[in-house]
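Session log. Operator J.P. requested a structure for one protein chain; no other inputs attached. Running the standard single-chain path with C-alpha cell output.
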Amino acid sequence: MSKSFKVTALASATAVLMAGTALANPYAEYEGTTLIVNFPAHPHYDAAIKVLPEFIRETGIEVEVDQLPYLKMRERQTLELAQDEGEYDLISYVVFSKADYVFADQLENLARYFMDPKLADPNYDAEDLIDGYVQNIGVAGGEKGYLPGPTGSLFGIPFGSETSVLAYRKDIFEKHGLAEPETYEQLLEAACKIPELEPGMGGMASRAASGHQASHAFLLHLAPLGGRVFDEAWNPIINNEAGVEAANALKTIVECGPEGAMSFGPSEAAASFSNGQSAMFLDSIAFMPGFENPDRSSVVGKVGYAMHPKGVRRGSQTGGFGIAIPKNAENKEAAFLLMQWLTSKKGDLMVAMEGGNPSRFSTYQDAGLNEKFPFSATFGEALKYADPDWRPIIPVWGKINADIGTTMSKVLTEGLDIQEALDGVADRTRAVMEEAGYYTWQ
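Structure written below.
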C-alpha cells in the first residue's frame, strides 16, 4: 500500500543574519520549491522522514514523500524513469537496481552538482562516507562495470546502506560456556549445539525462502569462505570448493535452525530471534535496533553483537539503499540539496539517532549515538570489512540471482547434490553471460 504525504515544518526558512549583515543563503533560490521523493517502507526511511521537517525549516524547500513497499517502489520507478518527464525528484533504490538504472541512462551523474560552488557544500567531507557503501551503492562504470576505477562515476549516495553482523544470545552462550563465534567453524558448531542444549530453540535464524532470499543467504557465506560468483574473466566459479562449502554452511544452518526456517525471509528470521526462538541471527544491521526495542522484542538486554565471522577472510555484505536523482526529474538542483543535506554529517547523525543506518564513519564514532545504541561500535568495526564485491551488480544479475535462489532452495528442500546443483548454475550462468556479450573480447 502506498503512503503519500507532505512533510511540513514549524517555520519556513528566512534569510540568515549575523552582526547586521546578510550571509549567503544557498537555499534562497529554491525556497518554495516542492520536491516529490520516492522512499521505501523501511526503518531507515521512517527515521529519515522524522528529520525532514528540519530540512524544510532550514531551507524553505517543501517535501512530499511517496512511500511504498520495496517491490512496489521498484515497479513504480520502472514506469516513472522511462517517461520523458517523471514525477519524482529524488528516489531511493536498492543496490542491485543500480546496474539497471545506470545502464538504461536513467540517473544523473552527480559530478556536475559537486562541481557547482553554488550547490556543493565545502564542508560535506565526502571522504567520511563509508568506502564500501559508496563503491557498492553509488559508483558505476569502473572495474567490472559496477565498481570504482579510472572510468567510474558517481550516480548515487548511500542512504540506508547495510552490512552484516552477528547477533547472539549472550545469556544462552554464557549459560552453556559457549564462546562468541569468531570463525565459521565456531559459528556452525554453535548453531547445531544450541538445539541440543536448549530444546525447542533454533541455533541460528537465516533467510532460506526460494528465490532471492536463498540466494542472498548463500552469498552471505560465499564471500568470507573465499568464493566469488565469477573470476576476473567472467568465468563462473560459483561451483568451486568455496561455493560447495558455502552451500553446505547454509544447509547446516537451516537444518539446525528454528521450525519453519526453510520459508524464512529476513523479517521472519529477525522475528524468530527477537521472539527468543533462535539463539543467533546473521544478517543486516537494519534489523538490530529492533532487538533492543521492548515493544517488539523479548530479548532486550540479552543480545551480544559481533562481527561477521571469519572464514578464510572477513567479508561482510554490503547492500541496502542509496538515493539518486532521476534523469527526468523536474527539480534536480533542489533535489541535490536535499540529498546533500540528508547525507551530510549533521543529517546522517540526525537520521541515525532516530534509528537509521549511518553512512559515515564519524557517525559511528559519535558518543551520543553509542550511548543510545551501544551496538554501534561493533557496527563501525565491521564496516572495515564490508565487501562491495560480495555479489556482482551487473545488468543480467537478476536472472542469475533467481537461478541461484531457486537452486539453493531445492538443495535445502529436495536434497539435491550440492556439487551437481552448483555445476548446473555455473553452466546456465555461462550461457546467460555469453548471450549478454561478456565473452565478446575473449
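Operator note: The chain has a mean pLDDT of 93.
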